[in-house]
Amino acid sequence: MQDGAEKAEQEVNPKVRTGHKVIQDYLKTLDNSPGVYRMLDEQQRVLYVGKARSLKKRVSNYANPSGHSARIETMISRTASMMFLTTRTETEALLLEQNLIKQLKPKYNVLLRDDKSFPNILVTKSHDFPQIKKHRGAKKEKGDYYGPFASAGAVNRTLNQLQRAFLLRDCTDSNFETRTRPCLQYQIKRCSAPCVGHISPEAYRELVKDAERFLTGRSTRAQEQLAREMQEASEAMEFERAAALRDRIRALTQVQTSQGINPKTVSEADLIALHMEHGQACVQVFFIRAGQNWGNKDYYPKLPNDSSSAEVMEAFMGQFYGDKEPPRQVLLSHDIEIADLMAEALAEKAGRKVEILVPQRGEKMELIASATRNARESLARKMSESATQTKLLKGLAEAFELPEPPKRIEVYDNSHIQGTNAVGGMIVAGPEGFMRNQYRKFNIRGEELTPGDDFGMMKEVLMRRFKRLLKEDPDRDKEMWPDLLLIDGGAGQVSAVREIMRDMGVEDIAMVGVAKGIDRDAGKEEFHRTGKRPFALRHNDPVLYFVQRLRDEAHRFAIGTHRAKRAKAQIKSPLDGIEGVGPKRKKALLQHFGSAKAVARANLADLRAVEGVSEAMAQSIYDYFHEKG
Question: How far, in whole angstroms, is CA 629 from its chain's centroid?
């Protein structure tokens, strides 16, 4: 795409003028080429990113002083300069526009939030007995991938039933190689125990084929085969085997009947349904693959005022498929103005035809109606939760004497065991509840800290956090700065933290210390602010419960991060530090010697005897342990 774009950025207007006349000045420099434009304010912040079949015609519309909605008129009035990038085709312009929107997050564009990658099911192909497992991220491992699934929960439910139906292993290769007797999965009839020879490679490969038939939508054949085998076992009075086959058939049926939306004639499609109400929107996406519903996920895009359904749907599709492979069909609840162009862009991305439809009859219309109902119900729940959250934030502002309800609250906590594996955690909450994609963890680095020095750890965390904020968002225009800090501790901690913030030149952020109170009892918390007397809230005050939830969430996040760090340290092998010893060599060394300690004690001759270890590598391993000793 980059090769096809003619990089022709126009210089921004140095004069601090805004509005229609500024935009008019650019018309004489533009032609009818397709491309992408950016509108910027006086501080060079991007207000809007758009695409155009003809840049000159599109910009001339903005230069016209009348005929705009209130939102567009406001945007034009704030525009101080524009930037342009021409492309060869309108399709390229569409792809570039969506990439820039995701990168720059302009105020006047519809913005997709919480856009994470989706998990898949992977059947590995690097082993004689393939493993079936959940996979997320780049598809680098050798094997067949099936997905996407809407969530880890959707994958786990399907994997659970597939293991019951096809008895495929889910253990790692290293675990498989070291087994001497069947694990619990075999005992509960979810694995055929190939690790100890309870099934032949040929029979296991047939199970793999049956699982893959199911995952590609050919489940009928697998169920018919199982039914025949169950009948034969029953006639031969092999009732235990017949019962096991019956359980496998039930497992397959349960996968198909517990999916809510169950398509009969749609084999591969995404259902995208939109519901808008009171300036908010919910988009529900259902993933139909192999004739099955592989889960759904709801999105709540950030909308500018007076956005139309076509505008929201178009923006959502462009950003949603920016880093995802589209299916063969995309079924929509609302039409978009550039359906042909979007289909062309998605086809270019997928390397095959992609069809975009707004169904008007039949099963596809029923599927979209069901997805739209989900979107409507999800938005109603979200709006109800938001109303409650808004009330709590208003109460918090009143209790802490803030000028207005906070839009971003940051809560900090530390976790360690006698100073080891120390981490700091930051959680964020706002009008829409916990903002989990904004959570941050901090590995405590200060070597001069006394073990267990909680204040020293907090000082390091806050300094790192706000130094980064000052660097990345000095003008405070990216909604990254907190309105309120909640600190675990009393007047001493608040005063000390205030001193740290003052040293960094940040003195205008409200800060409240939450002390445990009498007997460290929940409900008797005291709140401390600089220069004011401590106070407490009523035992049954909803604001008190809200603060407790914030503090508990910060504690949960910090402890979880600490445990993960500690677990990683515990399983770290001394072999990990040897240059040139990757997973394969490490596995060979451990299989040959039995443990890392035995590798460290081995002499050169023994090291050279390991398969895949050259004389030079043996010398490196030997030197690593003996120089350290």
Answer: 44
**Who's near 354: CB < 8 A, 6+ residues apart?**
326, 327, 328, 329, 330, 343, 346, 347
Q: Which residues of the chain have pLDDT under 70?
A: 1-16, 114-115, 219-223, 251-262, 416-420, 446-452, 517-523, 568-573, 627-629
Q: Give the containing element (helix H, strand E) for 500.
A: helix 491-503
Cross-strand bridge partners of residue 6: 86
Q: Which of 344, 347, 295, 345 is nearest to 319 (CA)?
A: 345
pTM, rounded to two decimals: 0.74
The number of angstroms, rounded, from the C-alpha of 428 to the middle of its chain's C-alpha atoms is 16
Give dist(CA 158, CA 309) in Å, integer: 34
Nearest to residue 547, comparing CAs of 459, 485, 480? Answer: 485
Kindly list the strands in the beta sheet with 81-87, ordered across the sheet, starting from the edge strand earlier in the chain. 5-6, 81-87, 35-40, 46-52
On whether the CB atoms of residues 47 and 75 are closer than 8 A, the answer is: yes
Structure tokens of 627?
A: 């120089």
* Cα pseudo-dihedral 318, 320, 324, 327, rounded to 10: -80
- Sheet with 143-146, edge to edge strand ranges: 132-135, 120-124, 143-146
* Cβ-contact 496, 455 below 8 angstroms: yes
Report phi then psi at 277, rounded to 5.
-160, 130
Would you say 43 and 72 are in contact if contact means Cβ atoms under 8 Å apart?
no
The Cα–Cα gap between 13 and 57 comes to 20
CB atoms within 10 A of CB 122: 21
Instruction: Name the helix (H) or strand (E) containing 384.
Output: helix 362-399
Structure-token pair, residue 269: 């499609």
Q: Do residues 154 and 293 touch, judged by C-beta distance below 8 A?
A: no
Residues 195, 574: Cα–Cα separation, whole Å = 28
Q: pLDDT tens, 326-366?
A: 999 999 999 999 999 999 999 998 999 999 999 999 999 99
Rounded Cα distance between 89 and 96, Å, is 11
> How many residues can be counted in the chain?
629
| Cβ neighbourhood burial of 520 (10 Å; 0-12, 13-18, 19+) | exposed
Q: For residue 276, which of 252, 251, 301 has the smallest C-alpha distance?
A: 301
CB crowding 228-253: b at 16 or more within 10 Å, else e: ebbeebeeeeeeeebeebbebbebbe
H or E stretch including 507? none
Query: Cα(165)–Cα(93) distance, rounded to whole angstroms?
Result: 47
> Bridge partners of 485?
410, 511
Inter-helix orientation angle 239-257/152-166, to 10°: 160
d(CA 90, CA 484): 45
